[in-house]
Amino acid sequence: MNAPLRNWVEIGSINDIPRQGARCVKNGEMTIAVFRTSDDRVFALEDKCPHKNGPLSQGIVHDGCVTCPLHNWVISLETGAAQGADEGQTASFPVKLDGQTVLLGL
Amino acid sequence: MSKQRLVIIGNGMAPGRMLEHLFEVSDAFEVTIFNAEPRVNYDRIMLSPVLSGEKTYTDIIIHGEGWYEERGITLHKGEKIVQIDRDERKVVSDKGTVAQYDRLVIATGSSPFIIPVPGSDLPGVLAYRDLDDTEGMIAASAKGGRAVVIGGGLLGLEAAAGLKLRGMEVTVIHLMPTLMERQLDTAAGYLLQRELEGRGIEVLCQANTKRIIGTDRVEGVELADGRIIDASLVVMAVGIRPNVKLAQEAGLAVNRGIVTDATMRTSDHSIYSVGECVEVGGMVYGLVAPLYRMAKVAAEHLAGPSKAEFVHAETPTKLKVTGVNLYSVGDFAEGPDREDIVLRDAARGSYKRVILKDNKIIGAVLYGDVADGGWYNEMLKSGEDVEGMRETLIFGQAYQGGASADPLAAVASLPDDAEICGCNGITKGQIMAAIRDKGLTSLAEVRAHTKASASCGTCTGLVENVMGLTLGDTFVIPQAAGMCPCTTHGHGEVRRLIRAKELKSIPAVMQELEWSTPEGCAKCRPALNYYLVCDWPGEYTDDQQSRFINERVHANIQKDGTYSVVPRMFGGLTTADELRAIADVADRYSIPTIKVTGGQRIDLLGVKKEDLIPVWKDLNDAGMISGAAYSKGLRTVKTCVGKDFCRFGTQDSMGLGVKLEKFLWGSWSPAKLKLAVTGCPRNCAEATCKDIGVICVDSGYEIVYGGAAGLHIQGTTKLGNVKTEDEVIEVIGAMTQMYREQGFYLERIYKWAERVGYDHIKDVILNDLEARKTYYDRFVYSQQFAQVDPWAERVAGAEAHEFSNMAEIKLEAAE
Ligand code: SRM
Ligand SMILES: Cc1cc2nc3c(=O)[nH]c(=O)nc-3n(C[C@H](O)[C@H](O)[C@H](O)COP(=O)(O)OP(=O)(O)OC[C@H]3O[C@@H](n4cnc5c(N)ncnc54)[C@H](O)[C@@H]3O)c2cc1C
Ligand code: SF4
Ligand code: FES
User: Fold this and answer.
1) To the nearest whole number, what is the mean pLDDT of chain A?
2) What is the CATH number of the domain that holds B264?
3) Does any domain span residue B809?
4) Using the beta-carbon criterion (under 8 Å), do A23 and B801 form an inter-chain contact?
């Protein structure tokens, strides 16, 4: 099977993102939220909660998840899947670090 | 055959337990009990939770009236035996009741020792032994003031902690250089002292009481070095003396206690003795575990021929002060033939010391992390040779290969005869057997059938683990009500520990209080951030990432991801210039909706995130700051027009509202805080449903509080009347600070007041001028760091990353 062909795009430095925080990247009409955890792992999700499209980039980041600011769903940063009893999944994108530089796989 | 007559003097914990054993195996006795205390048998150990308010008397009754009736026992409450006539085999009470016996049990316990200094008989000087003492302390604490506790042992410290929780100032006076020196070594005693001081309890060691001062009642304590400590209550907890007088007068062998042999029989073959009044094997005891063993031995010998004998065993000591963990057992004096293994973890405030002799454990002192206490005690009792695990012994059971840090696995690895409940001597095997044989499924049932964890309760967690082990998944081990799933500590505990341990960052709190998640969650992080902001003004750096988005970007997020912006209009007043600036901003940034809010100001709805900074800049330039319509903090101070315009107005309600809002803005609080000032009791500003309201009246100002009109509708409660605007401001500043310091996150004033008591708040804020002043001063101090307009800060460049995208990807044709 062919791995999907990824286009790796430089979006900036890891230091642009606060620890336990997120920044947004505009990709045409779509907004992608790029998260940084306290141990400097970086993840990217579409900035749309599977519940009612809440901007996940504005949520609180904890333990590999983000809590949506609108109604507190908890979404896994790695898979985009809603945790606990809630069901739904947000699109996730691969991220690579090259030194300090963050590369987003589209 | 007619029944034998068994008479018991004293109805404390020891004879109560003896009767339980006796009725299990024999119905040969007709029992009569005399008790000097006018009540049934209760759990004396639990007086400390009653004192601290965690339990009530009814919670700690061991045998209710019905228990005696069912067994045909005659209980003479409030009757003291004054004479034992051994020739005629009868006892006589102070009320003249006479009872004949075939067998007599003396269980008179002990009496608190009162140091015979001048003034020790003044009203207001109490011992700590029974319910009356406890109720006396509770009554005294209601009046506030300072309590001096003489004696820094187990009882004294439990009294001190309880009185502190009841709101008194507390000083502990201790003769020795360190606290609880009979159970703790100096290092652990020091840690304990530091912990208590962190809770605001003053501890004076090496302090000798010279006299108690006072004319009609106690007013203070004078120390040998001349220091005088004011006190409205003095508690003497310096030790106990076995009650032997009665036995002595009856000619029984008495030494320090009533002398018995190992079967609990005194020098008279018809008379037994159990409890703290006994001396057996040359020892007297003051903890229930050995007394319960005496009770069992005595019951077996009363029931018939038996080989049961009392044997000495070390009893571990624990202190029942919530949040203080210490465990000590055995002998910890230093000596040439002994070896110490010590582990200190200063960061975690924990200390462990195990004392070895000939490769065997003879004592252990643990402070902080006490999980392994039971394990060391097991080895101490079995006399196991620990040579093989010397290197890892101090790290505890989890490090001994096999058993893991999982508490269930640790319990699983214990042998069946391992003691789980020290007070009652109940083993793991006994609990498991009872669960299986009797089909027990709840902790209450296990307590009822085995007594495990039914006395001091510190082994409850272990018992639950044994239940989990036996019942498997059908038993869910209950979680303590923590503030969120990341911790077992409740909000109150966390707030107290933040101050006591001087924790000044979220990671420090999580580390020290052993959060179970590395980074907390969306519930606990904002709460911790608030507690730290409140407790360490000027020192703590607000953690933006632990704030909800509204408080991070100082605007309210809307369902479509845009924001609403509400500038402050002090007291609901505005000007033509401000209105013009708002109109210009709305035009300039195409803000779709402008609305007048229920809080007497204007809301700009539908602002795009990237426009927030320029919108704020323009509003700032027109002299407006953030209205904090998003904050757990001061929201609005609504006003009505007042006496300058209204024909009914009695005071300048608008002016006072503006002053209050200028004074209070910027402050963070546990939940949102809304005020109103209304010019007369017609109440057009709706002051009687606000967190704090002011109703102007002819003679001044009536202050009310605890209202809400949201999810829950609640009218306010009156705090009181004051005469001047300055007093209004001082009272409201002080009350706000008290709420800020005590409230749990998201708890509005009415909930806080219900929890701590409206009367109490009134006593402190309205009636106690000194307390009011200190709260007010602390509020004023913290305001100098809080009154910074967050919009202006961000316009100047703070948190810039919040307001712009990281990148914009140009669409490129894929190759
Ligand atoms: C804008 C406003 C409605 C309006 O257009 O008038 C408003 C809007 C919101 N209120 Fe309110 N409340 C507004 C006055 C009130 C009032 C009236 C008052 O303050 O006199 C009340 C009842 C009084 C009270 O608080 O007791 C009120 C009781 C609530 C409650 C229930 C609070 C409670 O403890 O029961 C909530 C929910 C909450 O806070 O958890 C709430 C929450 C909200 C939130 C913040 C919901 C949210 O979390 O997103 C709304 C934000 C809307 C937005 O997107 O901007 N709002 N809200 C008012 C702003 C006042 C201001 O100038 O700051
Ligand atoms: C506040 C507090 C906390 C404690 N905490 C712990 C703890 O955590 N762990 C622990 O193991 N132990 C603890 N103890 C100690 C424990 O409570 C006692 O060891 C135990 O209650 C003693 O039981 P007893 O039956 O010997 O005597 P008591 O319970 O003292 O009972 C004696 C009874 O006899 C009555 N009496 C005395 N003389 C006469 C007479 N002539 N005629 C009739 N009645 C008489 C007395 O009024 C009293 O009711 C604590 C004690 C206190 C006060
Ligand atoms: S009442 Fe308040 S919270 Fe409810 S929809 Fe209206 S503004 Fe929103
Ligand atoms: S939109 Fe995210 S929880 Fe509702």
Assistant:
1) 90
2) 3.50.50.60
3) no
4) yes
Number of structural domains in chain B: 7
- Atom number, ligand 4, closest to the C-alpha of residue A52: 1
Longest dimension (CA), chain A: 39
Residues B133 and B172 placed together within one structural domain of the fold: yes
Does residue B459 have its Cβ closer than 6 Å to ligand 2? no
Residue with the smallest CA separation from ligand 4 atom 4 is A71
Confirm whether B810 is domain-assigned: no
Distance CA B411, CA B375 (A): 10
Distance (Å, rounded) from C-alpha B809 to C-alpha A29?
10
Q: Where are the alpha helices (DSSP H) in B665-763?
A: 725-742, 749-756, 758-761
Our CA-based measurement puts residue A27 at a distance from the nearest CA of chain B, in whole angstroms, of: 5
- Same domain, yes or no: B562 and B600: yes
State which residue of chain B sits closest to A5, comparing Cα positions.
B814
- Give the domain extent around B513: 491-536
Same domain, B442 and B559: no
Q: Which ligand is nearest to the CA of A69?
A: 4
How far apart are the CA of A97 and the centre of ligand 4, in A?
29
Is B548 in Cβ contact with A69 (below 8 Å)? yes
CATH, residue B778: 3.30.413.10
What are the tens digits of pLDDT across the range B739-755?
Answer: 999 999 999 999 999 88
Q: For A75-95, what is each residue's pLDDT tens digit? A: 999 999 998 778 899 999 999
B264/B297 same-domain check? yes
pTM of the model: 0.53
How many angstroms separate the alpha carbon of residue B412 from the centre of ligand 1?
Answer: 53
The residue to mutate among B271, B288, B321, B460, having the most atoms of ligand 2 within 8 angstroms of its beta carbon, is B288
Helix (H, G, I), strand (E, B) or coil at B723: coil
Closest ligand to the CA of A67: 4
| Max CA distance (Å), chain B | 115
Counting other chains too, the contacts that B781-785 makes at CB distance below 8 Å and 24 or more residues apart are: B781/B537, B782/B534, B782/B537, B782/B538, B782/B667, B782/B737, B782/B740, B783/B663, B783/B666, B783/B667, B784/B537, B784/B538, B785/B537, B785/B538
Question: Is the Cβ pair A25, B805 closer than 8 Å?
Answer: yes
Token pair belonging to B459: 């082994």
- CA of B710 relative to ligand 3 center, distance in Å: 10
pLDDT for the residue B658: 97
| Domain match, B359 and B280 both | no
CATH homologous superfamily for A9-91? Answer: Rieske [2Fe-2S] iron-sulphur domain (2.102.10.10)
Question: What CATH number corresponds to the domain at position B608?
Answer: 3.90.480.10
Whether A12 and B519 lie within 8 Å, measured CB to CB:
no
Q: Same domain, yes or no, for B786 and B651?
A: yes
Range B258-286 average pLDDT:
96
| B135 close to B52: Cβ distance less than 8 angstroms | no
Same domain, B509 and B571: no
